[in-house]
Amino acid sequence: MRQALADFGASLKRIRTLANSILAATGAALAEPMIRELHETQQCGAVVLMTGYFEAFLKELVRRFIEDLSISGVTFAELPEGIRNRHFEGGGDVLTRASEFARKGRATPFGNATREDIVARLHSASNAAGSYQILWEAFADTQANPAPRVVKEIAKNLGIKEFWPAVSTHSGNSSRWSDSALTTKLDDLIVKRNACAHTGTVSPIPTATDILDFTDMLEALGTGFVTVLEAELVAHKARVTPATTAHVGVPAAGQVPGASATTSP
């Protein structure tokens, strides 16, 4: 999960570099309309791009958490009911979408996951030996619009309660990023992103300072989310007894539990 955060931070660094270059050239932009128009285009593009980085981060974070949970030593039956239900119910939606895409000859929206792979992972929960793979895609639906409500829903499906206060506490700067500050700033980002992406224009144009604030917020949010999930994983592992651990194995490389010929993504 920390690697997902590091990759996200590297992406945000690119946006910061762009915003700082725009700030440094403010005088030239005021004197030359063409430079100002170029900056405004870059500023709108940066908002769309950083939201895409955020979506990618959320999906990768969920994947890593779910994969770690699957090999934590907790049996599937001992997982919280919400996670077990989401595995099947959300997994059913994922399977339907993957099947529709495959029927039309299109790649699935879940990377290289096939219908057969998804079915194998869904079925792995019934493995009497205890090893299984939770279907992470069932927990990673950003709805192409990762507003505060959507992010909270993702966290809830992973078993996180009081999400926004917890993220604020572990954000690295809770005095600046209270739960309300995080959600307000994320809402503002999504509104501007949607306007830029769907209309090509937004008024007022997000400034370079706005963009820097958005990157700070996303970094704080990412840090808090990772820390909260790490604590959740530790809590799951703490409930594992030695006898339980002995019966929960790690699937062989490239193999889904209970499905000897199926590879996972």
What does this structure look like?
- This protein has a domain at 2-75 and 141-241.
- The chain has 265 residues and is an all-alpha fold.
- The protein is globular.
- The two termini are 17 Å apart.
- It contains ten helices and no strands.
Low-confidence region ranges: 245-250, 252-265
- Sheet with most strands: none
Output the number of helix runs. Answer: 10
| Overall radius of gyration | 21 Å
| Proportion in helices | 55-70%
Proportion in β-strands: under 5%
Order of helices and strands: HHHHHHHHHH
Please count the beta strands (DSSP E, at least 2 residues each): 0
Protein structure class: mainly alpha
State the end-to-end CA separation: 17 Å
**Overall residue-averaged pLDDT value:** 88
General shape: globular
Protein traits:
mainly alpha; 0% strand; 265 residues; 66% helix
